[in-house]
Design a protein that fits this description.
The structure is a single chain. With 520 residues, the protein is mainly beta. The radius of gyration is 23 Å and the shape is globular. The two termini are 32 Å apart. Strand 18 and strand 19 form a beta hairpin. It is built from five helices and 33 strands. The strands form nine sheets. Strands 23, 24, 25, 26, 29, 30, 31 and 32 form an eight-stranded mixed sheet that branches. It has a six-stranded antiparallel sheet with strand order 15-20-17-18-19-16. It has a five-stranded antiparallel sheet with strand order 4-3-9-8-10, with helices on one face.
């Protein structure tokens, strides 16, 4: 297929026109009485767009980062990510397994997803809970001495099984998959959201906190689960054919700016700082300001964020040759003093809304900015906690556990229904490990092997405590704004207890927490 400049997400109207031109008239049916599209009509709509092709990638187990596209994927050029004002060039647009649509909706208590609006139908708003809708995919992962071979299709070919979390707890297949477009935020009532423009929720997010925040025992809602993580990783490998995710999208992993105001002001919405520091600050990013009454510069202390936390930078204006004013989008004016502390914070959700296709606001590789892939915004400068994965330190080793049904999720450990997928890779003592390749088990794609680095193998770090430790640790993915080269899609920090919260710990909603487990 020829390279295509991807426009803003395909609207329902344009898809309907395209289907009609192929003689297919099926479009989603909106039920006015319940305010939702019928799931059966969405499933039928997606079925009409299947291409039946088997897209593959061969992932070497050795130090090489380059992968080989196979099957229907062979010969398709890698996308060229975009920035605001320059659309991505993505030859995967229109290919069945890579179809996605931006929708409003959610998930019912039994795990069944629902859709209330589709981008382009006149009902859709990114201020309402926003998800990426995809068809249920089928996958086959095989292994040789030299490689892991991943194949994905929108049609079930011999030997394939449904993708992670495709089956509901009652055994029925989901009509489609939903993935949270945005990182977790909360509304004024504390309700979890996936919306554009909101400061991300941190400081109180943990595995255990997610159990109560998402009300996992009584709703279909969950913190981000392994299946959400798997989709992004699989799409990345298939489209970009490299194990080194940071070679394409660094994410916000080296944006650690801390400074003091150079001028004290009252009743203002700006902070005046030294020009050399202001030059490091990006318009559109977020920062925190605190009275800094204590001795520590750690962003985790309340005195370093007690004026605002996660306020968006809206412009920079030179004051004189040595000073620049940073203006913020805040609800009310504030005072500043030269003893205060201003520091970068995780970006607000929606930072990539103006990016057309995969990409970042102005640079995909400057290590300061989030990125979007398949419509999903990631890498905002915070860890994302997985709500159904924990690491158990047994005193003589480690075990990684995945819980298929988050209705059973509990604080401090895993339920009896959880599935063991083997050891957390790393040395016997505390420290970093760099795996060589990824492999999927029970729906979790995890790095495997040892002996790599930030430039060979999987290129992402996994951090663990000593095997002699006894207890459970939460799964912190992606990396935060100070991790630099160790971060990436396969990064995991595994040394924090299940209830530990910090300023850089966040997550996102999941509509895929209630599952029967790895489907056949």
């Amino acid at each position: 297929m020829a390279k295509t400049h991807i426009a803003d997400h395909e609207t329902l109207e344009r898809v309907a026109i395209a289907l009609e031109s192929m003689g297919a008239s099926t479009v989603p049916i909106f039920n006015e009485e319940i305010g939702r599209y019928t799931n059966a009509s969405i499933a039928a709509w997606l079925a009409k767009m299947r291409d039946g092709k088997n897209y593959g990638v061969s992932i070497p187990k050795g130090s090489s980062t380059a992968c080989t596209k196979t099957g229907a994927n062979a010969g398709i050029a890698n996308p060229q990510p975009g920035v605001i004002g320059r659309a991505a060039v993505d030859p995967y647009v229109g290919h069945g397994a890579f179809l996605f649509f931006e929708v409003n909706g959610g998930v019912d208590a039994d795990g069944m997803p629902y859709v209330t609006a589709i981008n382009g139908d006149g009902r859709f708003s990114r201020k309402d809970d926003t998800w990426i809708l995809t068809p249920v995919l089928y996958t086959l992962e095989t292994e040789t001495d030299d490689a892991v071979n991943l194949a994905v299709s929108d049609t079930c070919h011999p030997g394939m099984k449904r993708q992670p979390a495709a089956l509901l707890p009652n055994g029925a297949q989901r009509p489609y998959m939903l993935y949270a477009k945005y990182a977790l935020s909360v509304d004024v009532d504390g309700k979890p959201r996936s919306v554009s423009g909101a400061p991300v929720k941190t400081r109180s997010v943990s595995h255990d906190g997610g159990v109560s925040l998402m009300k996992t025992a009584t709703t279909g809602d969950a913190l981000k689960v392994a299946a959400d993580d798997w989709y992004v990783k699989a799409m990345f490998l298939l489209k970009y054919a490299t194990k080194n995710s940071q070679s394409i999208f660094t994410g916000c992993t080296a944006y650690d700016v801390t400074t003091a105001p150079t001028v004290a002001e009252s009743n203002t919405t700006r902070v005046v700082i030294a020009k050399d520091k202001a030059d490091q600050v990006l318009v559109g990013s977020a920062m925190m300001l605190g009275t800094h009454t204590g001795d520590s510069a750690d962003r985790g202390y309340s005195y370093n964020c007690d004026i605002f936390d996660g306020a968006k930078v809206i412009k920079k204006v030179a004051v004189d040759a040595s000073n620049v004013a940073i203006y913020f989008d805040v609800a009310k004016p504030f005072n500043t003093a030269t003893t205060y502390q201003l520091a970068t914070a995780p970006w607000n959700a929606g930072a990539c809304d103006m990016v057309e296709g995969d990409g970042s606001p102005t640079s995909c590789t400057d290590s300061k900015q989030p990125f979007v892939i398949q419509g999903i915004e990631l890498g905002l400068g915070m860890y994302e906690v997985l709500g159904n994965v924990l690491i158990e330190y047994t005193g003589s080793g480690t075990v990684v556990w995945v819980n298929p049904d988050t209705k059973n999720e509990k604080s401090g450990s895993m339920p009896d229904s959880a599935l063991s997928i083997g050891a957390f890779p790393g040395p016997a003592g505390e420290g970093w490990n760099y795996g060589l390749y990824p492999k999927t088990a029970s729906g979790l794609m995890m790095q495997q092997g040892t002996g790599a680095s930030t430039s060979v193998g999987i290129c992402d770090g996994n951090y663990k405590v000593a095997d002699t430790t006894v207890g459970w640790r939460e799964w912190l993915s992606l990396g935060y704004l100070g991790n630099r080269g160790v971060a990436g899609l396969w990064y995991v920090h595994g040394d924090n207890g299940t209830g530990i919260t910090r300023w850089a710990f966040g997550s996102r909603r999941s509509a895929n927490g209630r599952s029967r487990g790895e489907a056949a």
